[in-house]
């Protein structure tokens, strides 16, 4: 599929660097819409600076945020009031998760850093019966549909960056300071592997180079 001209890509890169916004946070409200109004325990895997965990804490009795990065976990703790229901721990997403079971597990822009099927099996094992798993992940564009979505996101990305920053150049949000590596699994492989581990899982390609996965444990 024909890509955008190189000079246009460079111009957009410069514009986006001057008007950054958090693509992951864009989906936080969508995540909340997939969840019950109130629930007991929530686990946010790859919690970063804790933005999503703090949103979950408005509905949950307790929220455990885990991240492998000690520095970003320290930021999350510093940004969270002592009275909040959210706590943050440096932990390995496959071996050191809080035991649970958890009524809700979320994972945003983290799953492509992990062995995919093994991570989903781990999440499944920590989810309470009737609990909900919500993933927002990255995939490698491969098909015509993927590239069309990517092209559609390019101008939307610039427009939202302009609106969110009110037309002014600005520094990236704190939650964007940690770089994420590109995904290597295409969407079709993600969907096939996910439905093998989590029968009935619902997956969908999304704008801004993301996909979503939702699953409720029987």
Q: What can you tell me about this protein's structure?
A:
The chain is of the alpha/beta class. The protein has two domains: 6-21 and 140-176, no CATH class; 25-139 and 183-216, 3-Layer(aba) Sandwich (Rossmann fold). The chain has seven helices and seven strands. It has helices at 6-18, 28-33, 51-56, 70-79, 116-126, 144-164, 187-197, and strands spanning 39-45, 60-67, 86-90, 102-108, 127-137, 202-206, 210-216. Strands 3-2-1-4-5-7-6 form a seven-stranded mixed beta sheet. Strand 4, helix 5 and strand 5 (127-137) form a beta-alpha-beta unit. Helix 5 runs parallel beside helix 7 (187-197). 33% of the residues are buried.
Which features characterize this protein?
218 residues, alpha/beta, Rossmann fold, 7 strands, 36% helix, 23% strand
Strand arrangement within the widest β-sheet reads 3-2-1-4-5-7-6
- Helical coverage, percent range: 25-40%
Q: Structural class, judged by helices and strands?
A: alpha/beta
Overall average pLDDT: 81
**C-alpha geometry:** globular
CATH architecture of the largest domain: 3-Layer(aba) Sandwich
- The succession of helices and strands, N to C, reads HHEHEHEEHEHHEE
Topology:
Elements: H1 6-18, H2 28-33, E1 39-45, H3 51-56, E2 60-67, H4 70-79, E3 86-90, E4 102-108, H5 116-126, E5 127-137, H6 144-164, H7 187-197, E6 202-206, E7 210-216
Parallel strand pairs: 1-2, 1-4, 2-3, 4-5
Antiparallel strand pairs: 5-7, 6-7
Please provide a brief summary of the model.
The protein is of the alpha/beta class and 218 residues long. It contains seven helices and seven strands. The protein starts with 5 loop residues before the first helix and ends with a strand.
């Amino acid at each position: 599929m024909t890509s955008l001209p190189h000079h246009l890509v460079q111009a957009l890169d410069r514009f986006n660097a001057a008007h950054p916004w958090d693509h992951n946070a864009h989906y936080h409200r969508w995540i909340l819409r997939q969840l019950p109004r109130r629930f007991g325990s929530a686990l946010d895997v790859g919690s970063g600076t804790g933005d999503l965990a703090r949103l979950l804490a408005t509905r949950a009795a307790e929220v455990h945020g885990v991240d492998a990065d000690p520095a970003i976990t320290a930021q999350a703790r510093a940004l969270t009031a002592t009275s909040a229901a959210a706590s943050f721990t440096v932990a390995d997403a496959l071996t050191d998760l809080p035991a649970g079971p958890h009524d809700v597990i979320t994972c945003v822009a983290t799953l492509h850093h992990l062995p995919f099927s093994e991570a989903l099996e781990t999440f499944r094992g920590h989810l309470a019966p009737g609990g909900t798993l919500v993933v927002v992940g990255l995939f490698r564009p491969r098909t015509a549909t993927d590239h069309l979505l990517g092209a559609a996101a390019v101008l939307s990305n610039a427009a939202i960056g302009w609106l969110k920053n009110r037309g002014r150049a600005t520094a990236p949000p704190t939650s964007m300071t940690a770089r994420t590596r590109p995904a290597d699994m295409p969407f079709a492989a993600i969907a096939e592997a996910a439905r093998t581990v989590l029968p009935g899982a619902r997956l969908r390609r999304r704008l801004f180079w993301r996909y979503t996965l939702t699953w409720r444990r029987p």
